[in-house]
Amino acid sequence: MEVTLVDKHLSNYGIKNAINGTRTCYDSFHKSDSDGTTIGDEDKKLLRNILKAGHETPFEFINLTFTVKGLTRAILQELARHRMASFSVQSTRYTLKRMKDDVLDNLDKYFYTDLPLYKEYLTMIIEFIEKNNLWELPNDKLKFYMPESLLCNLQLNMNFRSFLNFHKLRSSDKAHFLIQDLANGMYDELPQLLMELVDLYNSK
Residue 140 is part of a domain; what is its CATH number? Predict the structure, then answer.
């Protein structure tokens, strides 16, 4: 799985907007020490303090957009349970048959295969599809023959308040191991300041 934060420039994440939103609440703009490119120590302290106090709504101004390559359809279902996120997902309706000519030689390209005897299992499925000419089915029917290990690519957008909740739940060792990989991959892409806020939130 490959996770990438689309734009890593701090100002584009709305961090300054989150600061401004918070300072609006407390009428404390005179204390701000951030400019258009950097976040000052006083404003960093402010963000840490509101997080500790449970005042999380200003973090909704920070929007994170990720591209994810190689996510299983099973984990896509897990991800969709988090209501406060937007997705554009590679469509099986339009792209499924692109694997037809080379899938048996490239199982790792199209499926998550790191399971015992799983390549042998997938080979039986694909050979069954070929033997019974199921490639001729419309994609909306053909996809019922595909296991949940089928890989897809997507772009997702999530505000930072939602990400705090998502990461705390899905980085837990109680979560599915692949969504742990996703949550931690997203975390690893964050700017340092946001990483520190995630760590603070998880420590509460």
Answer: 3.30.1360.170
Instruction: Indicate the pTM of the whole model.
Output: 0.92
Judge whether 115 lies within some domain: yes
- How far, in Å, are 4, 73, 190 from residue 7 at the CA level? 9, 25, 10
Q: In what order do the strands lie in the sheet with 151-159?
A: 2-5, 63-72, 151-159, 86-89
Q: What is the pLDDT along the chain (204 residues), one digit of tens a residue?
A: 999 999 877 666 789 999 999 999 999 999 999 887 789 999 999 999 999 999 999 999 999 999 999 999 999 999 988 888 899 999 998 999 999 999 999 999 999 999 999 999 999 999 999 999 999 999 999 999 999 999 999 999 999 999 999 999 999 999 999 999 999 999 999 999 999 999 999 998
Select which of 83, 98, 161, 170 is catalytic.
170
* 170 catalytically annotated: yes
